[in-house]
Specification:
The chain has about 350 residues and is an alpha+beta fold. Helices cover about 65% and strands about 15% of the residues. It has helices spanning about 1-25, 30-65, 70-100, 110-115, 115-185, 190-210, 215-230, 260-270, 305-315, 320-330, and strands spanning about 215, 240-245, 255, 280-285, 290-300, 335-340, 345-355. The strands form two sheets. Strands 2-4-5-7-6 form a five-stranded mixed beta sheet, covered by helices on one side. A hairpin with a 3-residue loop joins strand 6 (about 335-340) and strand 7. The radius of gyration is 37 Å and the shape is rod-shaped.
């Protein structure tokens, strides 16, 4: 509020000084420069005492019109009334105060000045000029303020949506992992305790690290490695997993858990649905903030009808999985490129992200 008051005071001070400068004759400096300058400033202060109420009354009128509290006819009537009063006060102040008291000069009869078209046109232009500048500044400020508010609202909306997506993704991961643990427990496997420990470690990471907007990419690599090790406990030698990564900066920032869901999907729809030997190959490269991520997983060969049925089932099951991460990518990395190739023998995901364009 104080800042706003300061801006208003500064505007009127600059306006008075500018008008005084326009009316100041440099040749008069030799005679009585300071006295004449103070006299000109005093004259401008007389007129400003009329312009200030007019401008702020117009501000009030503009606010009522923009907020749709007043109709255009009521607004026009008020503006005409304000200018009529201001014109009369300006002519009166000019005749009585400026020429009569400050300059001590005789002028035309007041009634004649009021009826003079030239006088009315002159004062209308003066009042309209300062009012136009002030209202233009106000409208520009309101427009900027509205755009900032819209951007903040959109940002808040996207943040809420992103939080909701993350809240969906974590239980989705937990659900899949608990299914794995259940399967091991049914078999009374000795690996069950190790799986629970790894799951505990990953959940701790999800609780405390993913609350941040970004993490170092080496942390994401670490969680992927933990997940791969956790999943491999379920399988025998029938599954081959390769995870290669080559990065020029392992401290580069990235959105948390933006890469893991694709690996999770590869296990779910690859090894998890295969009865024979299968593989998952993950390649991650980063150079000059350009990230390339590719995941390939084998699939059992299906007939055309089985493939169509499998594709439909996969699409339905991916409502929380891949569709969730796709939306997160749209929100965080709008310029990303994601391609998914789901053929009869292999499922391939390719992702390119320019980390310079990330909204984190």
């Amino acid at each position: 509020m104080r800042k706003r008051i300061f801006y208003h005071i500064a505007f009127w001070v600059l306006y008075v000084l500018y008008k005084s400068y326009l009316n100041f004759d440099p040749s008069s400096v030799k005679i009585n420069g300071i006295g004449i300058l103070l006299e000109i400033i005093l004259v401008q202060l007389v007129f400003v005492s009329i312009k200030i109420p007019l401008v702020y009354a117009l501000f009030y009128t503009t606010d009522r019109f923009l907020s749709k509290q007043w109709s255009i006819f009521r607004t026009a009537a008020v503006v005409i009334a304000l200018f009529t009063v201001a014109l009369f006060c300006s002519i009166l102040a000019n005749q009585v105060i400026v020429y009569g008291l400050i300059y001590n000069e005789k002028t035309d009869d007041l009634w004649t000045s009021i009826h003079s078209l030239k006088s009315i046109s002159y004062w209308f232009f003066i009042l309209a000029f300062v009012s136009g500048i002030a209202i233009s500044i106000k409208l520009i400020r309101l427009n900027i303020k509205q755009k900032i508010a819209e951007q903040e609202l959109l940002k808040k909306k996207l943040e809420i949506e992103l939080q909701f997506l993350k809240a969906q993704a974590n239980p989705h991961f937990l659900f899949n992992t608990l299914n794995n643990i259940y399967g091991l427990a049914r078999k009374k496997s000795d690996k069950t305790a190790d799986v629970v420990m790894k799951l505990s470690s990953m959940l701790r990471y999800m609780l405390y690290e993913t609350a941040n907007e970004s993490i170092e990419i080496e942390q994401e690599i670490g969680i992927i490695n933990d997940y791969i090790e956790l999943e491999k406990l379920r399988y025998t030698d029938r599954l081959d997993v390769i995870f290669n990564h080559s990065l020029d900066n392992y401290k580069e920032k990235i959105a948390p858990l933006i890469l893991l869901p694709f690996v999770e999907n590869a296990f779910k729809h690859g090894a998890g649905e295969s009865r024979f030997r299968s593989y998952i190959a993950v390649e991650l490269t980063l150079k000059d903030k350009q990230l390339f991520y590719e995941i390939r997983n084998s699939k059992e060969g299906l007939s055309d009808s089985e493939q169509a049925k499998e594709t439909t089932t996969a699409e339905e099951s991916d409502k929380i999985g891949l569709s969730n991460i796709k939306r997160q990518l749209e929100l965080i990395y709008p310029s990303h490129q994601l391609t998914i190739d789901n053929n009869s023998n292999e499922f391939i995901v390719k992702l390119r992200i320019n980390l310079n364009d990330g909204k984190i």
